[in-house]
């Protein structure tokens, strides 16, 4: 690790409470072949957040993560992690960052425990005197203590992923960067990893995870950024992003045809009738008046609500198209 200068703190970012854990300005990557993979990205990841980096395949998530971790140089723009510039401060920053990128590198013929011991040996910052205890604690953390003696090749995909997370947790971390941590897992494996992420976050670790799964982001993340074709569409608290898209008015009634007619008169657009449910865009006028108009027209109203918009609604509103997760 380099000598700290008079102007740079030795512990990255600790001086600046409240400073974002990740901040990029106009971060751009054009690959040699000419492909503009990331285009002018301004990303702000608050300390303590579980930050979902969402986008379809090919939208530039992995390229961004590789720039953040100092694995590739940006074409232009800047990235700061824990208040320090990347890739310049890579050696000072990375000991505080646990990463799981493109699946864990494991030796199948070694046990889970021996994989972690080996991994820790390769880390020059790791203290050999505390190695066994740290490996045991990391195995415990991810629920692999009972399977620690099994060869890694006998592990399920979910167990391998958890072992990869354990490797990232051998040291106390201020930031965890996880690239598609549930990719390829069955629903049970996904649940386990999501639970683990929530637990890690509740200890105060900032977690930055990429995903192409909208519901995953809604379930585990406090904040999110949405990427499409290398560009940032939006970022912020998940609740705000979803609220940015308007919900839908839902009227439940045994008189759906008459209800649809009245709602149309009341200025409700994009009406759809399915069984006893009539849905439409939330109109600009007072909903009490809309409801009163239904009742005045003799429509028997069983239910009258505005369904909360999901992150998917927000995405559709932003892009004008569905969120295609194929591939
Ligand atoms: N090494 C490379 N050289 C040239 N082009 C690349 C390279 N790596 C990625 N790309 C291209 O850059 C774009 C963004 O890719 P990237 O892998 O960052 O997206 P992603 O959102 O992480 O997608 P995925 O989830 O499929 O990994 C894609 O068009 C991809 O083909």
Automatic annotation (TrEMBL):
Q: Where is the ABC transporter domain?
A: 22-254
The molecular function GO annotations come to:
ATP binding
Keyword line: ATP-binding, Nucleotide-binding, Transport
Q: Has UniProt tagged this entry with the keyword Plastid?
A: no
For this protein, the record's Gene3D superfamilies field holds: P-loop containing nucleotide triphosphate hydrolases (3.40.50.300)
Q: Which InterPro entries match?
A: AAA+_ATPase, ABC_transporter-like_ATP-bd, ABC_transporter-like_CS, P-loop_NTPase
Give the protein family.
Answer: Belongs to the ABC transporter superfamily.
Which protein are we looking at? ABC transporter ATP-binding protein
Q: Which organism is it from?
A: Streptomyces levis
Q: Give the classification, highest ranks.
A: Bacteria, Bacillati, Actinomycetota, Actinomycetes, Kitasatosporales
């Amino acid at each position: 690790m380099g000598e700290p200068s008079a102007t740079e703190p030795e512990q990255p970012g600790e001086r600046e409470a409240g400073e974002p854990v990740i901040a990029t300005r106009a971060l751009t990557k054009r690959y040699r072949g000419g492909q503009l993979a990331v285009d002018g990205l301004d990303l702000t990841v608050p300390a303590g957040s579980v930050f979902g980096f969402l986008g379809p395949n090919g939208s530039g998530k992995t390229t961004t993560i590789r720039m953040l971790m100092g694995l590739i140089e940006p074409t232009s723009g800047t990235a700061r992690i824990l208040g320090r510039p990347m890739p310049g401060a890579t050696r000072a920053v990375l000991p505080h960052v646990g990463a799981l990128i493109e699946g864990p590198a494991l030796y199948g013929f070694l046990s889970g425990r021996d994989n972690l011991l080996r991994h820790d040996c390769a880390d020059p910052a790791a203290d050999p005197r505390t190695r066994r205890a740290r490996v045991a604690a990391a195995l415990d953390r991810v629920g692999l203590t009972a399977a620690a003696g099994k060869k890694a090749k006998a592990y399920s995909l979910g167990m391998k992923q958890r072992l990869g997370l354990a490797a990232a947790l051998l040291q106390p971390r201020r930031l965890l960067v996880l690239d598609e941590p549930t990719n390829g897992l069955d629903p049970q494996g996904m649940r386990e990893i999501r639970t683990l992420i929530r637990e890690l976050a509740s200890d105060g670790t900032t977690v930055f995870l990429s995903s192409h799964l909208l519901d995953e982001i809604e379930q585990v993340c406090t904040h999110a950024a949405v990427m499409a074709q290398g560009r940032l569409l939006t970022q912020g608290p998940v609740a705000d992003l979803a609220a940015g898209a308007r919900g839908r008015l839902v009227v439940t009634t045994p008189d759906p045809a008459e209800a649809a007619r009245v709602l149309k008169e009341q200025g409700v657009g994009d009406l759809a009738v399915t069984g006893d449910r009539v849905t439409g865009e939330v109109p600009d006028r007072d909903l009490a008046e809309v409801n009163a108009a239904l009742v005045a027209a003799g429509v028997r109203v069983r239910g009258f609500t505005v369904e909360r918009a999901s992150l998917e609604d927000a995405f559709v509103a932003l892009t004008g198209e569905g969120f295609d997760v194929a591939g």
